[in-house]
Each structure stands twice: as structure tokens, then as C-alpha cells.
């Protein structure tokens, strides 16, 4: 009997000492709140930039067609300033891409994101350098936001 009684006392003490105090629980909850306050906005920004990459990819696809057209047109930007001249269909609007357009005469490509993608613009301006090579200058609101 004595052995059973002693064993019972030991197990009840272990159960009493095994729990967390209220202070420990409050500290853990507070630390989780601080981590969540940092992680949620960072995650949302990451997702917005990821969505905007669709706009960049669609604009880059048009840029490749325009570059091929300019090789054949002999560096005449006016000859490659419409989707019909590039033998392309304008990219359709999606949940992330509002539009991709080409400015007539200058051939400037502009991709615009939806609100889900931050609403940024991605602008590619074609030009020819001194060696007569095609270059694209990147600008738009995505540059300042570091989304492109």
C-alpha cells in the first residue's frame, strides 16, 4: 500500500508543476502579435509584387515582338507601333493585368496592373544608341515601388 500512496503523491505534484503560468501565456501571445504585425504587411506586399510580375511578363512579350519587327523595319519605330504591325493580339485583361498598350509613333510600351497587383505602371521606352542598337528604358510607378 505504501508504495502506491507514494507513487500517487509524486504524480500529483508533477501535474501541478507541468502547467504554464498566466504571465508566460501572455508573453507568448504578445510575441505572436508582434510577429504577426510584421509578417502580414510583408506578405501582402510580396503577393502584390508577385501579381504585378504578370504585367511585366506580358509587356516583355510585346517587347520581344517589337524588337523583332524593328529588325525587319530598319529601326523605324513608327513601323512597329501597333499590335497589328507586330502580328500580335493585345494581351487580354486579367485579374492582375488591366492593360498593355503601345503608343503610336514612339512605340512606347505601357503595362498597367489592376488594384490587386498594386495599380502600378510599367513603361518601356525604345530607342537606338550610337551603335544603332535597340535599347529599352524602364520607367513607371513600379520603379519607385520596387515592383519591377
Structure description:
With 148 residues, this protein is an alpha+beta fold. It has a single domain, classed as Glycoprotein, Type 4 Pilin (2-Layer Sandwich). The protein contains three helices and four strands. The chain has helices at residues 2-17, 22-73, 141-144, and strands at residues 97-102, 109-113, 121-128, 134-139. The protein has a four-stranded antiparallel beta sheet. The N and C termini lie far apart (77 Å).
Major beta-sheet overview: 4 strands, antiparallel
CATH architecture: 2-Layer Sandwich
How do the strands line up in the largest sheet? Answer: 1-2-3-4
Strand content: 15-25%
Whole-number average pLDDT? 88
What is the number of helices?
3
Tell me the distance between the termini: 77 Å
What structural class is derived from the secondary structure elements?
alpha+beta
Q: How many runs of DSSP E, i.e. beta strands?
A: 4
Q: What is the alpha-carbon Rg in Å? A: 30 Å
Helix content: 40-55%
CATH C-level name: Alpha Beta
Number of domains: 1
Order of helices and strands: HHEEEEH
Annotate the secondary structure layout.
Blueprint: H1 2-17, H2 22-73, E1 97-102, E2 109-113, E3 121-128, E4 134-139, H3 141-144
Antiparallel strand pairs: 1-2, 2-3, 3-4
Amino acid at each position: 500500500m505504501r508504495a502506491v500512496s507514494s507513487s500517487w503523491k509524486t504524480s500529483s505534484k508533477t501535474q501541478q508543476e507541468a502547467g504554464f503560468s498566466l504571465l508566460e501565456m501572455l508573453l507568448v501571445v504578445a510575441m505572436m502579435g508582434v510577429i504577426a504585425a510584421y509578417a502580414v504587411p510583408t506578405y501582402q506586399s510580396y503577393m502584390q509584387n508577385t501579381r504585378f510580375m504578370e504585367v511585366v511578363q506580358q509587356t516583355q512579350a510585346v517587347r520581344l515582338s517589337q524588337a523583332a519587327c524593328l529588325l525587319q523595319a530598319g529601326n523605324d519605330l513608327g513601323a512597329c507601333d501597333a499590335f497589328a504591325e507586330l502580328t500580335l493580339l493585345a494581351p487580354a485583361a486579367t485579374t492582375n493585368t488591366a492593360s498593355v498598350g503601345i503608343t503610336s509613333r514612339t512605340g512606347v510600351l505601357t503595362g498597367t496592373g489592376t488594384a490587386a497587383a498594386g495599380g502600378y505602371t510599367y513603361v518601356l521606352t525604345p530607342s537606338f544608341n550610337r551603335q544603332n542598337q535597340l535599347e529599352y528604358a524602364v520607367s513607371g510607378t513600379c520603379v519607385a515601388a520596387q515592383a519591377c
